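JOB MANIFEST
job_type = single_chain_structure
chain_count = 1
residues = 253
[input]
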Amino acid sequence: MSGRAMLAALVAGERDPVVLAELAKGKLRKKIPALRKALRGRFTDHHALLIGLSLAHTAHLEQASAQLDDRVDTLFATPTGPDRDGAPGIPFARARDRLDTITGVGKRAAETIIAEIGTDMTRFPTAAHLASWAGLAPGNNITGGKRGSGKTTHGDVWLTDILVQCAWAAARTRDTYLSAQFWRLARRIGKKKAAVAVAHSILVISWHLLAQDCDYTDLGGDYFTRRNPDRQRDRLIHQLHNLGYRVTLDKTA
């Protein structure tokens, strides 16, 4: 925000680089000497007009975004209608909070997911049906012993986009199941395909949380190691052999 304060001061007529640099806050204050040099220059009334218009437009967009956020919060606080069995639906707010517990999924992402798939999972008999509808179910066609490309099908592009963004966010977390899944796959199929695979996992998790009305429980970053310790041991031994080490297993241990 200190950068915007400097721009507002320039629009208001302040031109002294020392005064402008002192408006810096937080980590930016460490760069005050560089800011003083950078703020020396030719800044005309025309520049002030253009920047003033940009600041006013930005403020308008932020105000409109805040109003929309308030409207979304109001709508999400309203209980949904009955499901196919006649039972009351899960309130949007509660469903959003459920999805918000998934690694990589934030409030806005959870709202977007619900806007695309709703909260009534009875329309999708299984998580696989939902993934297929969304276009995140990879093809598994085998003809004459040959496997197909495995590409995902066409589906809800808006849902796919937000889920892939969540997958990238999950990949940057530490010691989580989705992060471990991403990097495990990325080594074999590349980061982009790994992100789509994790997006599929997030959608499957979302189906279970909404269908069972429960929070997400992370399996941990060491899940794949715990699931198959022998494979992990063999992989580490292979890496040591590639580095020139000789490993002998103690069978009596």
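[summary]
The chain has a mean pLDDT of 85.
The two ends are 61 Å apart (CA to CA).
exit_status = 0
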